[in-house]
Amino acid sequence: MSFRNEEKLRIASSKIFQLKEWINTNLGFALFPSRIINSVYFDNQEFTMFHQSMEGVLPRKKIRLRNYDKEFSLNKNINKEIKISSVEGKYKISEKTNNATQLMNSGIYDKNYGLCHPVLNITYTRSYYKIKNIRLTLDEKISYKRIVNNKVSKFSTFDNYNIVELKFSSKKLINYVSENFPFERARFSKYCRGIEFIRSNYCNEL
Questions:
Q1: What's the confidence (pLDDT) of residue 168?
Q2: For the domain that residue 40 is a member of, what is the CATH number?
């Protein structure tokens, strides 16, 4: 089990050019080609994972199915992932699953949260960079979709913000980011924001 320290920050689209200039100035480089990430998040009936994430409770989990395509299709290669946030840091358990259809229909049982069902689909384009042993990812074109009757809705809600995620393994690197990262450092959770978006849109439709 390998813990990592990470920080998610929101950044407006108008600041993307400035961010890429900062990456170049600090001798950063692209690690991999950009790709689309498509995830379905699960939660229990009380939305405990959502509330714990909003409150910053530790430890906590996120449970999701993920593929790398424009559409979330159960016929594609899908990973089942459990992301755990703890006092020591964060780590992820990922495994390929051949029963994604069953998980979407019947849910995923977790010993801490009970039976969890699909509640939210999030899609975005992710770019990968490295700066002084810091992993930086940039998530753009973020969209959220409700899950209706265990299926992904056709209707999307798009986010005005993009997300920068910084991953580092030492306090020295944390200090470097604190002193040199020239953007607003506001905590951001795509899952929490997505739940708030779809709840707000659903209430407006009533």
A1: 79
A2: 3.20.100.30
